[in-house]
User: What shape does this take?
Amino acid sequence: MLARPTDDSSSEIARAIPWDGGLDGILEAAGDVDVVTFDHDPADPSVPQALIDAGVVVRPGVRALELAADKLAQRRALRDAGLPVPPFAEVAAPEDVDGFAAEHGWPLVLKAASGGYDGRGVVFADGPDAAQAVLAGASGRWLAEPRLPLERELAVMVARRPSGERVTYPVVESVQRDGMCREVLVPAPVAPELAAEAAAIAGRIAELVELAGVMAVELFVVDDRIVINELACRTHNSGHHSIEMCTTSQFENHLRAVLDWPLGATDPRAPAAVMVNVVAVDDDHDPARFVDCALAVPGAHVHVYGKRPRRERKVGHVTALGPDLDDAGRRARAAAAALTGEVPG
Amino acid sequence: MLARPTDDSSSEIARAIPWDGGLDGILEAAGDVDVVTFDHDPADPSVPQALIDAGVVVRPGVRALELAADKLAQRRALRDAGLPVPPFAEVAAPEDVDGFAAEHGWPLVLKAASGGYDGRGVVFADGPDAAQAVLAGASGRWLAEPRLPLERELAVMVARRPSGERVTYPVVESVQRDGMCREVLVPAPVAPELAAEAAAIAGRIAELVELAGVMAVELFVVDDRIVINELACRTHNSGHHSIEMCTTSQFENHLRAVLDWPLGATDPRAPAAVMVNVVAVDDDHDPARFVDCALAVPGAHVHVYGKRPRRERKVGHVTALGPDLDDAGRRARAAAAALTGEVPG
Assistant: This one.
């Protein structure tokens, strides 16, 4: 849908603005565009507000970005709206943690209110000493939550445009290991009622934050009930499958949404899809050198990002569609293993 | 599948080499790559051979590019291989044309052996005077063919890698007007035997030219029989539907093929697809300004190329998938009309 401008170009549709020019560079590049959006969480959280102050249209709006970036503000806003969040409390001092633990028991999860990503800024504490060590060695605001007995994690990608149209992607299961998403199963293998509840919650949050763009809502399933985990107001790892699996990808719908254009259908193109992240095993083995091996797996859609490999860094992903999760999963895992050099389990 | 290199990049997979540096610039850019290919017919036909002379691996090979660029050499090679080409003769002087017409009758088609594209270099001549005027006003080598009573035009996209693996895309109908492809119907609404014959011919040509890449074989249907029209050894307008319609697009399979990587499946994702070219009506009405209108058509996949509009210039295309050609065609035509400002017929 998008074209890079050329000398002989027509109306320009999209343009990449690099971060390395700083706020001045971004403001200059944004001077003649209709709308600015982000494909990552903003590297500098003050930039969106500075752009707005300069009269630039920023989508998703500052409220959505704020709530995605500040877990404490987010928990409060969602709780106040009657949405299912886990018990939580801001913890600034050891006695705050002790008070929360007295009510909810140990172990606890301590989360940095901002700056966390892929498990960073999330610490499990078995008792008061561990909790105190975390707070003593950290800066910023923290919140405590009980460590929930998770059955599984779900994610729902929703797209909404300013004039109100909204579409929801299939509810997926996000399979985590060591705090990082490893696989995404589409659709999530859960009861239809639970999937419908997950989709409804994502829709309510999209309205609450007046979303203009795409948003991933990450959810826990605890005792067959849904609890909200996190929001990400951008294209998200849990939606990468949509490139091949859905009529319209999360990337295209994000752009449509921020431009207030009609949103595209999110229908699945196959009964099932599995997305497997390609996580580098060390600094030497570059998955990009093994794309040919991965492509030998029938039906494997191989994406490498051109990032230098580093242990535990996501450097690509593979998606496979199939008649069921088992078939799609075997293909996607085999191709991902060919890239990383690991033997599938 | 492909990533642009960054400062923090891993093994580079693909790089665009611009033509505007001339042969020296291309040779320099090609110095450290494994293989060079083309996404257009080479702007300067001597470049591929110059690259090969400099030790660069070029795919598809020079033989395939030569036959695609020289209609006379192509006709001879295909005829000699026993493949169905129309009657033809090289015509350098009026008496050559008269001799051909004495055997095959008027009207004739005169074709420039090289340089033609989208109807340019193809002239219909009703009689000797018209033919003589064409040859008198033209340079280069020309060939004459009878004007065939076409029932329809088909196209087959085939991909082949140097080690021999080959895949064939669904046989499509190319709907032409004024010498330009306007629509592509997938699959072509023809008898299965005819489609199978078309696919078999494309496969034989791929082997004959030792194709390494993708090739579009354009075919005429005359009296329920197939006659070869043209070859294009590159991604082609008749294969644009594959972006959404097929498991692996022509663009991805071209890159896989020139890298001698495993080819991807070409299965259709829906019973039918229609691709409609977006052809500018004048210099002022820029289809890129109406993308939002086109996207309001459910299921329309809108592509605009960022080219400045000019009457009869292809500046984009729309593909729609559907349960049948009628449904897909109505959606694709409606979206294309929204872009050009025309009312669908």
Q: What stands out?
A: DSSP finds eleven helices and 13 strands in chain A. Residues 1-7 of chain A have pLDDT under 50 and may be disordered.
